[in-house]
Amino acid sequence: MQAFTPLEAGDPERVGPYRIVGRLGSGGMGRVYLARSPGGRATAVKVVHEELAEDPAFRRRFGREVASARRVTGPFTAPVVDADPDADLPWLATAHVPGVALGAAVATHGVWPERFVRALGSGLAEALEAIHRADVVHRDLKPSNVLLAPDGPRVIDFGISVAADDTKLTTTGAVVGSPGYLPPEQLIGREVGPAGDVFALGALLAYATTGTGAFGGGPAYSVNYRVVHEDPDLEGLPEGLAEVVARCLAKDPQRRPGVPELIGELGRWEAADGARGTFTPGTWLPAPVAADVTALRTVPLPLPEEAATTTADADLPTVTVGAAPTAVATARLGAPPARPPLAARLRGAVRRRRTAVLAAAGTLVVLAVAAGLLLPSAFSGSSGRGNGTESSGSPTAAAKQLAVREQWSSGQDLWQPVVADGKVVGEGEDDLLHAVDAESGDVEWTYPSASSLEGVSDGVVVATSNEQGTVQGIALDRGTQVWSVPAEAHTAPGTSFHLYLRVVVAGGTVYVNAMYDLPEGSERSGRYAVSALDAATGRLKWTRPVEYGLSDALAVEDGVLYGGMWEEGGTYFYALDAETGEQRWRYRASEEIGGGATAIKVSGDTVYFGAERGVLHAVDARRGTRLWTYEPDVEVRDWLEPLVVTDGMVLGCTGENNGSVSGSGDVHAVTAATGRPLWSEHTGTEPELHGLLDGSVLFSTEAGTLHAADPRTGESAAQVRLSSGDPDAAAAGDRVYFDGGDGRLHAGRISLTER
C-alpha cells in the first residue's frame, strides 16, 4: 500500500523550496503533491489550478484563507507550514500525514463498531475546537478530508475554509462543499458558522457507522433537498450514538450541540481493553484499518531522483486531498413510473434479460447490445458531457473518429446473439437456435428444439424451455445436446413449474431462479425458489424456497451465489454458498417488498447490485455490509446488465423495464470506492453497455446508434448510426454482430482512430 502515486509528465520538479516526489490527489482547487522539504521532511504541497490563479478575486481570497489556516494548531489537524499566495501558481504546504482516508477505510473494510466511531468523533471534535479557536470554519468536512493515523484522526484541507468573519468573500449564490455534509443553512444562503462543522461531524459519524450518508445518495440536488427538508436516516446506528448524531444534524444550528459539549460526551470512549481515550492503533481503530495504517507508515518517502514519471492516469488517487469534482448529471427530474403488475414485470424480465451465463472464474463475459443497420461511415456530434480529467496517455473519445466496417452478412437473423469461442449463437425467426462462424458468417449448426437462449459457459450453450420445463446443455462446437435437467428435479411438492426467471452455470452446476404455480384456491398465486442442480445428472443439490419473489439477476463468483429476493420485512440481496446453499449473509436493500436486483457484478471484495427501483448498492462481498448506495434522480429506474467495473469506476445503464416497449434511459459512471457520481448521459431510447475498446466505453441505444465515450467524463462526440430500427446485437472486442433490419445478421469491425 502507498499513499501516493508516481509523477506524470508535466508535473513540477520543485514548488518553492520543496522537491516534488509524488502525487497525493487532486480536487476542485488544485493538485496535491508529496514533497521533501529542504531538511528532508515529508510535506503535502497543494498547487492551485492555472485557471483559478488567473482570477485576481480568487488570489485575494486564497491569501486570506492561508492567513486564517496558519492560525490553526492542534494535535488532530495538519498544520500549514509554508505558502506563497503570490506565486505564478499559488501554493500551500502542510505537514504530510501518511494516513488512510476515512472514506477509503470504510469502503475497503466496512462500517465501524460504536466504540471506534466514538473515538473518531472525539478526535474530530478536538480538531474542530482548534479550527474554531482560530476563528476559522472548515466548511468542507467530509470522509476524504479525514485521514486516519495511528495516534488519532487528522482533519486536512483548509483550502476552501473561510475565516468566520470573511464569509462575505464567497460568491453570492455559490455553494462550496460536499453534498450530504453541507448544513441546511449553507444550502439556503444563510451565514455559516461553527455549527455548520458540527453538522458535518454528525454526518461523518453516521457514515462511519452505516457506510452510507445520513441523507442518502444520488445527484447533489436531490441530496441537498433532503438535507433541507427531510429527517436524516439513522437506521443502523446504536441508540446512544444515534441520539448524538441526531442532535448534530438538527436543521436549526442553534439546536446543535457545541464542540466542547461533544468533546465531553464523545471523549468518554473506551477501548476493548477498558482503556479510556488513548489513541493508539490497537485501541481506536478497527483491526483491519489499523493494519493498513501501520503498513502505510512503513512506505519510505522516495528520493527526488527515484520519483519516476509515468503517463498513467492518476485522477483517482489512493488518498484524495481537496474538493471532489462536481458531478455532472444530465438526468431529468420527475416522478418514477408506476410499478407494473407482476405479470408485466415477468414479461419485462424476459424482454430485458441479458444473455450471460457466468463461468466459474468469470472468464466469459457476454456483451449483448442494442444496435442495427450498418451505414458506410461514422459521424460526430457533441452529445456527451463530463467533468473529469482526461487521461494524458491517449486521446479522449471525443477526440477520436468512430467507424464500423461491414465484414459479412448471413442469411439468418438472430435474436439476443451471444459471441463465444469463435461462434455467434442466437435464436432465429424460426424459433430454433443457430450458430454461425464469427469470422465468415457460415452456419455451423442448428438446434432443432424450440428453446430460449440463456448463454454460454465452458463450451456449452445453455437454453431453457418453459413449455417443457427443461434446462438443456448444447455442445458449442457441434450443436448436440450433452445434458438436460427436467423441472421435476427442482419443483417443490404441491407446486407445478411455471417460469424460469434466470439460469446460470458454473463449475458443472446449474443454478436456477424459478417461479412455481400453487394449487387453485391458494392464498398466493405463486411461489419461488433458487435451486442448484448437477449438470451431468440433473440431481438436485439444494433448493431454497422463497415466499414472495425472486429477482431475475444471479451471479456466481469464487464459490458464492449472489441474488435478490423479496421476503416478509423487505427486499434483500443475499450470498449463498454455491456448493451447499447455506446463507453466508443477507443484506436488506429496502423495507418495502419489490425493487430487487436486476444487475449484479462482483469485483474484488465488493459486489455491486443494481436494483429495480434505481438504486445501485455496493456491498462487502465477505460480510454483506453496505459500503455505499447511489440513486440517480431520473425517470427511468431499473439498472440494466451488464455492469462494468474498470479503473476505479462502475459503469452501468438504467432503463424503464416496464414490460412494454422500451423507453428512454441513461448511462452512468460512479467511483467504485465511494459511489460518488462522475457523470450521467441521457439517451432517447434504452441504452446498453458493450464494454471498453481502446480506452473508450462503448454503448448503444435501441435507436441504432453506437457511441464511444470517455469513461471518466462521459463526453461522447464519437458515434455512428447503425440502424433506424430496434435490433439486437452483440459486441466482442472490436467486432459487432447485429440485425441489419433486412432479416440478416451482419458483422462489422469497430475502429477508433485519432481525428
Question: Keywords for this structure?
Answer:
Methylamine Dehydrogenase, Chain H; 2 domains; 755 residues; 16% helix; 5-stranded antiparallel sheet; Transferase(Phosphotransferase), domain 1
Describe this protein's structure.
It is globular and about 80 Å long. The two termini are 39 Å apart. With 755 residues, it is α+β, with helices and mostly antiparallel strands. Mean pLDDT is 78; it is low at 159-175 and 305-394. The protein has two domains: 7-299, Orthogonal Bundle (Transferase(Phosphotransferase), domain 1), CATH 1.10.510.10; 342-754, YVTN repeat-like/Quinoprotein amine dehydrogenase (Methylamine Dehydrogenase, Chain H, 7 Propeller), CATH 2.130.10. The strands form twelve sheets. It has a six-stranded antiparallel β-sheet. It has a five-stranded antiparallel β-sheet with strand order 14-45-46-47-16, with no helix packed on it. It has a five-stranded antiparallel β-sheet with strand order 15-44-43-42-41, with no helix packed on it. It is built from twelve helices and 47 strands. Helix 4 (114-133) packs antiparallel against helix 9 (259-266).
Portion of residues in helices? 10-25%
Total of DSSP H or I helical runs spanning 4+ residues? 12
Tally of individual domains: 2
Strand content: 35-45%
Biggest sheet character: 6 strands, antiparallel
Q: Which strands sit side by side, in order, in the main sheet?
A: 2-3-4-5-7-6
Might you state the CATH topology name of the largest domain? Answer: Methylamine Dehydrogenase, Chain H
Runs with pLDDT <50, length 5+?
159-175, 305-394
**How many angstroms does the end-to-end distance come to?**
39 Å
Principal-axes geometry comes out as: globular
